């Protein structure tokens, strides 16, 4: 029979006991601790064993309940540190041993390590985080324990830390808001695995949720100086009863405070005390409830900038000058001969954070141009500029001399928008363009309508049956008519005064010397006269047809205003709009081109038109040629 089988027969089916320590398995020097061993109801004796010891460490009778026993250590020392297990004896024999219990002594002689979260102790729900336990004591191993658990959560071997000493990196997650995540870490050496260093400061991880985010503000400027008192205020309209303040990238755990109600808002004030360089950075705050481990969404970040930490002083100037009118373009120029990565422009008393611009090297200077376009009265105030390095963006140089910008005087005419479609002045210029285009469109449409009406009148005025119709309202005859040369016609307009005492005299002459093309001149000298239009042609059948057609149109033409508006010039008839006084000479000139028509417009505002041919004389003789006439010849 093998030894293993013999042991199993001796043990029988008795359950394995359970072992634990109270108040915990990690105990400081000199404190008392109780080790419990719990077995079956038939147990008659309990025994405690320590690894490395050949004898039984302790024996105890079961308590009245008979299912457990306790082993007391009144004064914890390094002798008690070690690994323990227990078993019990029953009428059927000895049980198998329990799982081991690590009883650890914290001597207080080894410095505590430092526990931090990377990248931040604030983690979103479901996210992961890395906890770093580091020490300059060069421990061989590190232990991470979660608060509320009896046994160590994780144990890892150490590795060299970037800044000396050793460290261990513990991945933790995924995070859930239903649990509290508070940790401590320890370090120890391999030759004494049950003697640990002092515990690190507790680190509570904040699991942020989606509930309403609070607001983070300060009563002071965000640019502070060394030694200045600084308090950050976290406020919320949600009834949170605890608040936490965290600094981005800081290894320290978030600071937590209870609720302080002010003006219907819940909040907490976080005094940072006299400002030191370590206070520069980006801060956020959170709100939470005592009965829940979940925190709110983070507030908007607040940057705290510490001035006077770099031994440089930039200069600040303004163009075009410190006094400007509203609407002007202003540029604030921050310069330094020393190397600067970033320039910041702050306005005294402003709630907004300082403006940041990357430095540019020009003409032996590091500089940045802060443009304001266009300025308003709100831009007036006192400005200062600072420089910073990329390695420490929250530590600033000495401030420049203050520059006061005064915005006064009448508003300047706003220039076209330079800040994009969202600028306040931009839409006005677009409106001006639209209005101008609309007016131009209306005028063009009116012109087209008028041209259409004139064209329709011309079509109505054409003589029916004529091979080449003539416009009636202008007394023209197209010289390009295809009629044979034998039937070439001349159009005469006879002007006869119906009042004998008021003569109308028209001098007709042909100046062949000055005008080789045969220019016809007509002179009319009478201020108050009525004109009679007549048509004299050769006695050809075509001429008689034209006369009959003219008779039919006479009555209609009498009602038509003979004066054409300013659009006649647009149509190509410059003389139609010319109204010379009747007391002044009126000259009608025939064009040099044989195809052109010479015409004249007679003002008909007070004239009556007649289209009948002069009647024959009573003597039966053919009528004499009118003594007063104007001839319009078609070349």
TrEMBL record:
Pfam families in UniProt: ig (PF00047), Ig_2 (PF13895)
InterPro entries listed in its UniProt record: Ig-like_dom (IPR007110), Ig-like_dom_sf (IPR036179), Ig-like_fold (IPR013783), Ig-like_Receptors_ImmuneReg (IPR050412), Ig_sub (IPR003599), Ig_sub2 (IPR003598), Immunoglobulin_dom (IPR013151)
Bilayer disposition of the protein: Single-pass membrane protein
Bias-annotated ranges (Polar residues): 509-528, 609-620
UniProt KW keywords: Cell membrane, Disulfide bond, Glycoprotein, Immunoglobulin domain, Membrane, Repeat, Signal, Transmembrane, Transmembrane helix
GO CC field: plasma membrane
Subcellular location: Cell membrane
Residue stretches spanning the membrane: 429-454
Skewed-composition ranges (Basic and acidic residues): 549-559
Chain positions covered by the region annotation Disordered: 246-270, 460-487, 504-559, 609-635
Ig-like domain sequence ranges: 314-397
UniProt GO MF annotations: inhibitory MHC class I receptor activity
Presence of the UniProt keyword Chloroplast in the record: no
BP GO annotations: cytokine-mediated signaling pathway; immune response-regulating signaling pathway
PANTHER family linked: LEUKOCYTE IMMUNOGLOBULIN-LIKE RECEPTOR SUBFAMILY A MEMBER 5, MHC CLASS I NK CELL RECEPTOR
Name the record gives this protein: Leukocyte immunoglobulin-like receptor subfamily A member 6 isoform X2
UniProt source species: Mustela putorius furo
């Amino acid at each position: 029979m093998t030894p293993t089988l013999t042991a199993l027969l001796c043990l029988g089916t008795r359950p394995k006991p359970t072992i634990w320590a109270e108040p915990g398995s990690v105990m400081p020097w000199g404190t008392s601790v109780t080790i419990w061993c719990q077995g079956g109801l038939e147990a008659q004796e309990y025994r405690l064993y320590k690894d490395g010891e050949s004898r039984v460490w302790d024996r105890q009778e079961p308590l009245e309940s008979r299912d457990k026993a306790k082993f007391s250590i009144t004064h914890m020392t390094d002798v008690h540190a070690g690994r323990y297990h227990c078993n019990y004896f029953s009428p059927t024999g000895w049980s198998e041993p329990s799982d081991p219990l690590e009883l650890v002594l914290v001597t207080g002689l080894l410095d505590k390590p430092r526990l931090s979260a990377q990248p931040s102790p604030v983690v979103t729900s479901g996210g992961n985080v890395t906890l770093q336990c580091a020490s300059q004591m060069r421990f061989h191993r590190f232990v991470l324990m979660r608060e509320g658990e009896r046994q160590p959560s994780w144990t890892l071997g150490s590795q060299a830390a970037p800044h000396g000493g050793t460290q261990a990196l513990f991945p933790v997650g995924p995070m859930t808001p239903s649990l509290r995540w508070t940790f401590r870490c320890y370090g120890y050496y391999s030759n004494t695995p049950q003697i640990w260093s002092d515990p690190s400061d507790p680190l509570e991880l904040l699991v942020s949720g989606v509930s309403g985010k609070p607001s983070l503000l300060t009563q002071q400027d965000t640019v502070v100086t060394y030694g200045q008192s600084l308090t950050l205020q976290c406020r919320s309209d949600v009834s949170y009863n605890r608040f936490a303040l965290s600094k981005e990238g800081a290894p320290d755990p978030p600071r937590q405070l209870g609720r302080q109600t002010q003006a219907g808002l819940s909040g907490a004030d976080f005094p940072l005390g006299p400002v030191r360089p370590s206070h520069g950075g980006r801060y956020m705050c959170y709100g939470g409830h005592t009965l829940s481990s979940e925190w709110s969404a983070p507030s908007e970040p607040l940057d705290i900038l510490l001035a006077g930490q770099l031994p440089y002083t930039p200069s600040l100037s303004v163009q075009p000058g410190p006094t400007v009118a509203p609407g002007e373009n202003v540029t604030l120029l921050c310069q330094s001969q020393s190397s600067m990565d970033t320039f910041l422009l702050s306005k005294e008393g402003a709630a907004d954070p300082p403006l940041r611009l990357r430095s540019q090297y020009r003409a032996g200077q590091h500089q940045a141009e802060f443009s304001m376009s266009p300025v308003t009265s709100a831009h007036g105030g006192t400005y200062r500029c600072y420089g910073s390095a990329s390695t420490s963006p929250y530590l600033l140089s000495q401030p420049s001399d203050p520059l006061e910008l005064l915005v006064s005087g009448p508003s300047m005419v706003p220039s076209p928008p330079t800040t994009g479609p969202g600028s306040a002045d931009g839409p006005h210029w677009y409106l001006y363009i639209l209005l101008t285009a609309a007016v131009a469109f209306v005028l063009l449409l009116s012109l087209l309508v008028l041209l259409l009406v004139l064209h329709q009148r011309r079509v109505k005025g054409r003589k029916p049956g004529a091979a080449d119709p003539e416009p009636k309202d202008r007394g023209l005859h197209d010289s390009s008519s295809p009629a044979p040369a034998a039937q070439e016609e001349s159009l005469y307009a006879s002007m006869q005064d119906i009042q004998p005492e008021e003569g109308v005299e028209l001098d007709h002459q042909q100046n062949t010397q000055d005008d080789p093309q045969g220019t016809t001149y007509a002179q009319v000298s009478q201020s108050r006269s009525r004109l009679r239009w007549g048509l004299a042609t050769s006695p050809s059948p075509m001429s008689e047809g034209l006369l009959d057609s003219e008779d039919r149109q006479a009555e209609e033409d009498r009602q038509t205003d003979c004066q054409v508006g300013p659009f006649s010039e647009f149509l190509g008839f410059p003389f139609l709009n010319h109204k010379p006084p009747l007391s002044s000479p009126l000259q009608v000139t025939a064009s040099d081109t044989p195809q052109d028509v010479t015409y004249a417009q007679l003002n008909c505002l007070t004239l009556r038109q007649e289209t009948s041919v002069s009647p024959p004389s009573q003597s039966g003789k053919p009528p004499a040629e009118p003594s007063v006439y104007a001839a319009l010849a078609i070349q």
